[in-house]
Amino acid sequence: MDRGRLRLPIALVAAVVVAEAAVLLLRPRDGVIDPAPVSVRSYFSEAQLDRARDFRRPQLALFGAALLVQGGLLVWVIRRPPRALRREWRRPLLAGAAAGAALSVALGAATLPVDAVRRARALDVGLATQSWPAWGVDVAKSFGIGAGLAGAGALILLGLQRRFPRHWWAPGGVAVVAVGAAFLYAGPVVLDPVFNRFERLPDGRTRTDVLALARAADVKVGEVYVVDASRRTTAANAYVTGLGTTKRVVLYDTLLEHFTRDEVRLVVAHELAHVHYRDVPNGLLYVALVAPFGMLGIQRLSERLAPGRAGTAGVLPAVVLSLALVSGAIGTISNQLSRRVEARADSYALRLTEAPEPFIGFERRIALRNVSDPDPPRWQEALLSTHPPTIERIGIGVAYERGRR
After folding, report:
1. Does 257 map to a domain?
2. Has residue 226 been placed in a domain?
3. 109 found inside a domain
4. Is 320 within a domain?
5. What pairs with residue 251 in β-bridges?
């Protein structure tokens, strides 16, 4: 058998195996409350379940359609590359940067009709609040930022391919980790303010609660901000982001406005759990473990899709398609780790606040507010979910409540 033909499947299998091994290595082994079995109809009416599914299932189908459109465009460009991608440019790296930026814009523009339909449906259910002109401004900003980043990425990629034609995957893996760390550090202070306004959580009861919870969790929270999410959506959420001096907890203004003090404390405690367990740095460690093997798979697949084009702008569509396929497979695997990490954060929040009833009430209310399916199909959870389904999170609260009796 031709050994060359085995290089691609071996590389792809290695990427998947290493990703699964990294999940097993970093997966929380304790601190997670096993959820009690509960019925979704004990917490949600048939009308509420129908509303969520009638909204989310078509949204998921539209998301899949957008991926198919972009994948089809990439396949078409790979098979019938335009003249600009076949031409030998005097400055191939600059030409590659321009091609990368143009490809980013083209992929974004190709799915604009689908994106508009998804947004119109979000408006219909009251989830989106932003006007169409304001949405258009955000789209233009996203296109500009995406084009700039894609151009820079193409420049780095082609430079590595020309300098290390046979083994560019190795420095490429290092570059992925470096770029990931840079985004974690600089994203909260450079990119996020482009789209939203962030204000320091003002002095008052909520800030006092946050600082008290941080002391109880024995963590340095960095800073706590409120983001004007209500400009775009009625959904409520919170998240922790940043590294080092940019580490911060961010609360949606919709969360502070529409949820009770106990519920907000639970959300804050959940985010503090991520700081307590160093989940953001651990996520970067996961990337460091899987990136080299993922890049090897991307190199082998792009070589098969576009032989002889490495180091030129003509290879970019093949690399982008390979990146989407390989990172999609790795992302599905990494979701196992993410769901376990989020379940541990829920468990920690319950222990820190000792408030199971508000926890259960919050999970129910936020699912209704975000028009989320509280009990999605198992295949959907396995492929796409970064968090446990709502009914499982309610089960964690029920299990904790029963354990206190």
Report:
1. no
2. no
3. yes
4. yes
5. 226, 238
CA angle 134, 148, 74 (to 5 degrees): 90
How many whole angstroms separate alpha carbon 90 and alpha carbon 87?
Answer: 10
DSSP states along 113-132:
HHHHHHHHHHHHTT-B---H
In Å, how far are 12, 134, 268, 290, 335 from 106, measured between CA atoms? 28, 21, 40, 29, 29
> What residues in the chain have per-residue pLDDT under 70?
1-4, 405
Look at residue 243 in the predicted model and tell me its pLDDT: 82
- Are 400 and 347 contacting, i.e. CB atoms less than 8 angstroms apart? yes
Identity at 250, one-letter amino acid code: V
CA distance 373 to 383: 15
**How far apart are alpha carbons 344 and 347 in whole angstroms?**
5
Considering only CA atoms, give the Rg of the chain.
23
- State the first-to-last Cα distance of the chain, in angstroms, to the nearest integer: 65
What is the number of other CB atoms lying within 10 angstroms of the CB of residue 354? 9
Distances (CA, A) of 70 to 8, 149, 251, 331, 344: 23, 18, 33, 18, 36
User: Could you read off the pLDDT of 108-153 as tens digits, one per residue?
Assistant: 999 999 999 999 999 999 999 999 999 999 999 999 999 999 999 9
- What is the structure's pLDDT at 3? 63
Number of domains in the chain: 1
Of the candidates 314, 324, 325, 322, which has an alpha carbon nearest to the alpha carbon of residue 100? 314
Q: What is the DSSP letter of 201?
A: P
Residue 260 phi/psi, 5-degree rounding, is -75, 170
pLDDT of residue 4: 67
Backbone angles phi, psi at 239, to 5 degrees: -160, 160
DSSP output for 52-95: HHHHHHHHHHHHHHHHHHHHHHHHHHHHS--HHHHS--SSHHHH
Cβ pair 35, 399 in contact under 8 A: yes
| 200/223 Cα distance (integer angstroms) | 7
Find all residues with CB under 8 Å of 165, minimum gap 6, and list them: 310, 311
pTM: 0.94
CB within 8 A of 135, min separation 6: which ones?
119
Q: Which domain holds residue 397?
A: 3-197+269-404
The residue written with tokens 């390979």 in the block is: 322
At 37, which helix (H) or strand (E)? none
The DSSP H or E segment spanning 164 is none
From residue 49, how far is each of 55, 62, 125, 372 by CA, in Å? 10, 20, 14, 9
240 vs 223: CA distance, rounded Å: 10
Q: Count of residues for the chain?
A: 405
